[in-house]
Amino acid sequence: MGSAASSGQFPRDGRPEVAFLGRSNVGKSSLLNALAGERGLALVSAEPGRTRLVNFFRVAGAAGAAGRFELYLVDLPGYGYAKAARAVREGWEKLVTSYLVGRESLRLCVFLVDARHEPTEGDETLRAFLDHHRTPYVLAATKSDKLGRGERARRERELARGLGRNARSVVAVSAADGTGVEDLWRSIREAALAAPAARS
Ligand code: GDP
User: Fold this and answer.
1) Would you list the domain boundaries of the chain?
2) How far is CA 121 from the centre of its chain?
3) Rounded to an integer, what distance in angstroms lies between the CA atom of residue 103 and that of residue 123?
């Protein structure tokens, strides 16, 4: 639908929104493309930490007995790029906060972490922020194709006890082999069709 550089440019049509958040290079663009079944939807970055815009993708789908649904998948800029200048980091915070705080149409966040790595300080800060604002989220462990089956299950359990302890669910995903994409769609659809929850 479009990209926004500030809150004045966010859509005002009230369609439900599901927002994607994570450290830069976590695999967010690839996952958005996998969810959409389209390669070129979100730009996969060769250079991490470049996107400083909030991108809105309007999606329509069928939800069985519930009929048709429409929503926005919202691509929020990634954080934690070590080489980013302070002004860029502060710009990130301002833009993302202006989106996350008080956004009535926001139904769910998909919080992405790399399945292979321990959560960073930035991940912990984001978790505390989402919990504080009572923003519902699912935790998605990306690039899980890089782990064997046993290791993947172990990481999912660890995340469910740790970073994802307050998440609605923890799901291992892979844009490369499609792992978890259907599960994630189910959570997204449910959240988009449900009545908005009270947040602060
Ligand atoms: P973003 O910065 O979070 O949007 O991350 P990108 O989607 O641009 O991906 C960052 C890098 O990780 C790219 O080199 C991708 O090819 C790679 N990548 C993303 N998703 C996967 C995945 O599911 N499996 C594997 N093996 N690599 C991935």
Assistant:
1) 2-193
2) 17
3) 21
Kindly give the distance from the C-alpha atom of residue 113 to the centroid of ligand 1, in angstroms, as a whole number. 11
Instruction: Say whether pLDDT at 60 is over 80.
Output: yes
59, β-bridge pairs: 71
Distance CA 142, CA 111 (A): 10
**pTM for the full predicted model:** 0.92
CATH superfamily of this structure's domain 2-193: P-loop containing nucleotide triphosphate hydrolases (3.40.50.300)
In short, whether 105's Cβ falls inside 6 Å of ligand 1 is no
For the stretch 117-147, pLDDT in tens is 999 999 999 999 999 999 999 999 999 999 9
Q: Which of 25, 30, 143 to mutate to test the pocket of ligand 1 (most atoms within 8 A of CB)?
A: 30
Measure 64 CA to ligand 1 centroid, in angstroms.
Answer: 32
